Amino acid sequence: MSELKEKLRKKIEEWRPRTARLIKEFGNVKVDEVDIGQVIGGARDIKSLVTDISYLDPFEGIRFRGLTIPEVMEKLPKVPGGEMPFVEGFYFFLLTSEIPTQDDIKEVTMEFSRRKIVPTYVFDILKAMPHDSHPMVMFSTAILSMQRESVFVRDYNSGILKKNDYWNPTYEDGLNLLAKLPEIAAFIYRIKYKGGKIIESDPKLDFGANFAHMMGIPKPYDDVARMYFILHSDHESGNVSAHTGHLVASALSDIYYSISAMTNGLAGPLHGLANQEVLRWLHELHIKLGEKVPTEEEMKNFVLETLKSGQVIPGFGHAVLRKTDPRYMAQREFCLKHLPNDLLFKYVDLLFKVVPPILLEQGKAKNPWPNVDAQSGVIQWYYGLKEYDFYTVLFAVGRSLGVVANIIWDRGLGYPLERPKSVTTEMLEEAAGIKK
Ligand code: NMX
Ligand code: MLT
Q1: Atom from ligand 2 closest to the CA of residue 236
Q2: Cα 409 from Cα 396, distance rounded (Å)
Q3: Enzyme catalytic residues
Q4: Contact predicate 349/329, CB 8 Å
Q5: Does 319 sit in the ligand 2 pocket, CB within 6 Å?
Q6: Bridge partners of 165?
C-alpha cells in the first residue's frame, strides 16, 4: 500500500467515530430551518451537505482544508523555478489535510505517472465524434467510456467488498482517472483545434507542466495550468458540479459515472461555462470597438445593452459569495504581474469598476461582484489558448481533483444515498395558509 493510501486509511478510521457519534447521539439536533423561498428557490443556503475538504464563507471566500488561497500558494511546495505549487502536492493536501513533503509529492507524481496511459479506445471514440461536438461533451464522453476500467465495480461485484472498504477501490479509480485527464483534455484540444497534431506525454514532467507540454504552449503556461487546476478544484459541496458528483456517487455509481456527470453540470452557462461566455462577450466588445480601451461610458453602455437584451453579465454574481471571489483576486494579481497591459485584461479591469454599481442599481443580483470566471479566460487567451469553447474543460480537470477527493471521503465515512424529499405546490400553499 502506498504511504498516501495508508495515511488516508488511518485518517478515515480516526474520523469515523466523529461522524458516527453525531448521527447516533445528536441526530435530532437542528442545524437549519427551511422556508418556502428556499424550497422553490434551488435549495439556496440550506445546510444539508457535509464536507471537510473545503468551506466557502460568503464574505471570505473559499478555504481549502482550512487554508485561504494565498496561504495555499505560500505553504505548499512549489515546482522548482515556478511560482505555483505542484498539483500533485495539492491533491495530497486535499485528501489528507497535511502539507506534503517533497517525498509525498514524489509519491503522488509516481502514482499518476504509472496510471496515466489512456486506453486507445478513448482516442478512437473522441476521433469518431462529430466535429462540432462541444469539448465538454467530448471530455464527459471520454471519462464515461472508461467506466469499464472501474476497480470499484470489479470489487463490488466480487461480493467480498465490505462497506468500510468502499473508499479503497474508489481511491484507486480516482487516481487512475485523474492521472489520465491532462492527456485526454490535451488530446481533445489538439484534434479539435490543431489539425490532430498530437504531442506525446512526457513522463518526466509534473501534472501542470505535462499538460502545458501536450497543449503545445510554452512556459510560463505550466504555472498557469497549475494555478488554474488548483483554484478551480473545489468550492465546498453545494455547487452544481460538486453536488452532482456527490449525488451520483451516493448511489454507489463509480468515479467514472460520477465525474462524467459532474462535468455535465459544469457545462451550463450559469456554472463553469461562464468562463467561455465571458470571453465570447468580451469579443463582441472587441469587434465593436477595435484595438482600443473603452471609456467608462462605453463600457457602461455595453453592460446595460447586455442586461437590456435579457442576458446575465457573465462572470458576475454568485449563489453563496457576497464579495469579490478570492479566486478572481488571485488571477487578477497574476494578470497585474504578468499581463498588465493586455487589452482584454484592461476590459476586465474596467468591468470590475463598472459592473458592480450597475448590478447594485438594478437591484436584482444578491452579489454584484466578479466570480472566478470573469478573469480566467483572459489569462488563457493571453498565453495563446484562444479557443474559448475549451475553457470549461480546464475548469473540469481542476474540479475533478476536488470532487474525487470528496467522493473518496464520502465512501470512507459511509455517507448514504442522497435522497431529499419533494412536496407538491398544493402542500406549500397549505403550509402558507393559502385558502382555496
Ligand atoms: N447579471 C445579471 N443578472 C444577474 C446576475 C448577473 N451577473 N447575477 C444574478 N442576476 C439576477 C439573477 O438572474 C436573478 O434574476 P431573476 O430574479 O430575474 O431570476 C436575480 O439577479 C437574483 O439572482 P441571485 O440570487 O443573485 O443569484 P443566483 O444565486 O440565483 O445565481 C448565478 C447565481 C452565479 C447563477 C448568477 O449570479 C449568474 O447568473 N451570474 C452570471 C453567470 C456566471 O457568472 N456564472 C458563474 C458562477 C461561478 N461558477 O463558476 O460557477
Ligand atoms: C464553483 O466554483 O463551483 C462556483 O463558484 C459555483 C458555486 O460555488 O456555486
Answers
A1: 8
A2: 20
A3: 271, 318, 373
A4: no
A5: yes
A6: none
- State which of 46, 60, 230, 235 you would mutate to test the pocket of ligand 2, scoring each by most atoms of that ligand within 8 A of its C-beta: 235
Distance from the alpha carbon of residue 416 to the mean position of ligand 2, in angstroms: 24
Residue nearest to ligand 2 atom 1, measured at CA: 235
Q: Give this prediction's pTM.
A: 0.98
What's the chain's Rg over C-alpha atoms? Answer: 22
Q: What is the pLDDT along the chain (436 residues), one digit of tens a residue?
A: 899 999 999 999 999 999 999 999 999 999 999 999 999 999 999 999 999 999 999 999 999 999 999 999 999 999 999 999 999 999 999 999 999 999 999 999 999 999 999 999 999 999 999 999 999 999 999 999 999 999 999 999 999 999 999 999 999 999 999 999 999 999 999 999 999 999 999 999 999 999 999 999 999 999 999 999 999 999 999 999 999 999 999 999 999 999 999 999 999 999 999 999 999 999 999 998 899 999 999 999 999 999 999 999 999 999 999 999 999 999 999 999 999 999 999 999 999 999 999 999 999 999 999 999 999 999 999 999 999 999 999 999 999 999 999 999 999 999 999 999 999 999 999 999 998 7
Q: Ligand 1: which of 305, 316, 351 to mutate, most ligand atoms within 8 Å of CB?
A: 316
Amino acid, single-letter form, for residue 96: T
Helix (H) or strand (E) holding 296: helix 296-308
For ligand 1, whether the C-beta of 65 sits within 6 Å is: no
Element (H, E) at 75: helix 69-75
**Cell numbers at 217, concatenated:** 504552449
How many Å apart are CA 32 and CA 420, to the nearest integer? Answer: 15
Q: From CA 432, how far away is CA 40, in angstroms rounded?
A: 13
